[in-house]
Design brief:
single chain, about 280 residues, Rossmann fold, 2 domains, six-stranded mixed sheet, four-stranded parallel sheet, 11 helices, 10 strands
Length: about 280
């Protein structure tokens, strides 16, 4: 089966890496809209248009399921894509639900961190969109969720600038005046931000939990693919099973330097996810 993963840039490589581990042998198509990144500082209408255009391109290539590995694109266009296309669309959203519900034990009692708050770091468009506002309103009955827009982290990731000094300097600047000890959980609500988990870990107290939406998204992808196995049993869209085909905007990526860039980013994320030391 073929899985298409779409993102504004390189952030969705984190979803690709997690998906490959969960569904080995699938054929993946990765589409990074590098001509138009970042999405998070654009208008909703522009992001909607760009996302629909990318999905049309992906549909022409052929796919069994599309993953929108971008919280911003999900907010702007997921509903429209589900109406336009016949293949399933798996979309992301910031992991606000697990962050809020973990404060309540299985027995319905408040946890030890019940007095702590939840910080949701995402792009400006994700945080101001109605989809996010509705999500928070439905879950955050105690008013403990604080949004934090971090648009420049997307630029850092696209430039492959991961050294501590500039990233931590930026994070300290945007959180200046905030008591970071108030937070039991930090939600990374943009896939680009996952590359910077070590910097978030060093910025917040050791007992602060840092979570993201990748696990929930890949779990939904696996459920979707399980449901499609019978439907698509006779159809083979995978000329190179287990391989990844990359596209930057509407162009196939074949030159070694560009492919090496994607490889390095996937390798970095794998190390970050495993908690290995980074050079």
């Amino acid at each position: 089966m073929r899985v298409a993963i779409f993102d504004s840039g390189v952030g969705g490589l984190t979803v690709l890496e997690d998906a490959i581990r969960r569904v080995p042998g699938a054929d993946f198509l990765y589409f990074a809209d590098t001509d138009n990144v970042p999405y998070g500082t654009k208008s909703k209408e522009e992001v909607r248009r760009l996302t629909v255009e990318a999905a049309k391109f992906i549909a022409d290539l052929g796919t069994d399921v599309l993953v929108i590995a971008c919280n911003t694109a999900t907010s702007a266009a997921a509903t429209e894509l589900r109406h336009r296309f016949s293949f399933p669309v798996v979309a992301m959203e910031p992991a606000v639900k697990p962050a809020v519900t973990r404060r309540i034990s299985a027995e319905g009692r408040l946890s030890l961190n019940a007095d702590k708050r939840v910080l949701v770091a995402a792009t400006p468009l994700t945080l101001r969109e109605e989809k996010f506002q509705r999500l928070v309103a439905s879950l955050d009955t105690e008013g403990i969720v604080d949004p934090l827009p971090l648009p420049e982290l997307v630029d850092f990731a696209e430039r492959l600038e991961f050294s501590d000094s500039p990233v931590l300097s930026y994070l300290r600047k945007v959180t200046a005046g905030q008591d970071l000890g108030l937070y039991s959980t930090v939600v990374l609500g943009c896939t680009h931000f996952l590359f910077f988990r070590p910097q978030f870990r060093s910025l917040f107290p050791p007992d602060t939990e840092i979570i993201d939406g990748n696990e929930g998204t890949v779990n939904q992808l696996v459920r979707t693919m399980d449901g499609l196995k019978g439907v698509n049993r006779e159809r083979d869209l995978s000329p190179f099973p287990g391989r990844v085909l990359y596209f930057e905007s509407m162009r196939p990526v074949t030159d070694p330097p560009a492919l090496e860039r994607f490889r390095r980013l996937r390798e970095r994320y794998a190390l970050v996810r495993e908690g290995s030391s980074l050079s």
